[in-house]
Write a structure and sequence with these properties.
Blueprint lengths: L2 H25 L4 H31 L1 H25 L19 H28 L3 H24 L4 H24 L6 H31 L3 H18 L1
Helix pairs in contact: 1-4, 1-5, 1-6, 2-3, 2-5, 2-7, 2-8, 3-4, 3-7, 4-5, 4-6, 4-7, 5-8
Length: 249
């Protein structure tokens, strides 16, 4: 299979974890504490992948200064976009309570959809960049995205259900995200194929910065709001799981 299609396949698979989590969150009744605990675990998984996969890879290929500039740039870009979406009604898109309904805030459904895309694009692109780097699919990175996407879809869809959104809205949203994430992974491979390893590494750092901003802005607050007693321990468990995958993958 051509590598660009391999990138698309793994991007789709990682995005499909959102759909699976959404189905669980929408059709099954889970306690808020359980959902928050799963979210905390997913946050820990991503934190480890960012540190030991993405940042380390960018540093080894481009050095400290380009990595740092890319990292901060990614965080700034994500934060600015996230603040804009918050005004549009997407600031609680990962939450299982407090999401506005369409009647309460017109256009919030579209904002949630765009927000979901914003959260997943960096993750998908780095899957394509990883394959482009010549080392093949990073098992640790793909596993980290899958493990973190599941609770994101679960928590967000549980909130959508409480806000009165329909089954069709949830199904179309997350199916579309899975397809778009596959396309983003393909783009990460195809678009950056013409660039030097230095540019690819710097772009990886940008994605890492955006992902870290996403975790701290949306996932950790959601987990801590309910499981503040043990959220730290659960994040550590997720971090260690991803770290182990990095070392044995």
């Amino acid at each position: 299979m051509p590598e660009v299609w391999t990138a698309g396949l793994w991007g789709f698979v990682s995005g499909a974890a959102l759909l699976v989590g959404a189905c669980v969150g929408f059709f099954f009744s889970l306690s808020e504490r359980r959902i928050a605990g799963i979210m905390a675990f997913g946050a820990g998984v991503l934190l480890s992948a960012i540190a030991f996969e993405l940042m380390n890879e960018a540093f080894e290929a481009a050095g400290l200064l380009p990595t740092a500039i890319g990292f901060v740039s990614g965080a700034l870009i994500y934060t600015a976009a996230n603040r804009g979406l918050a005004r549009w009604g997407a600031h609680k898109r990962k939450r299982f309570e407090g999401q506005p309904s369409e009647s309460e805030l017109g256009g919030s459904g579209s904002a949630i959809a765009v927000g979901a895309l914003l959260d997943g694009v960096p993750e998908s692109i780095v899957i394509g960049l990883g394959i482009l780097g010549g080392s093949g699919v990073s098992v640790a990175m793909v596993a980290a995205v899958i493990i973190s996407n599941f609770p994101e879809g679960l928590s967000s869809s549980a909130g959508m259900k409480k806000a009165g959104r329909s089954t069709s809205f949830v199904a179309v949203l997350w199916t579309s995200m899975a397809i778009l994430f596959g396309l983003c992974a393909m783009a990460g491979y195809a678009v950056f194929g013409a660039f030097s390893p230095f540019v690819i590494a710097a772009s990886t750092a940008v994605a890492a910065g955006a992902m870290l901003a996403m975790v701290t802005d949306t996932m950790i607050p959601e987990a801590f709001s309910v499981r503040h007693d043990v959220a730290g321990l659960i994040v550590v468990a997720g971090f260690l799981t991803s770290f182990t995958l990095t070392k044995v993958g």
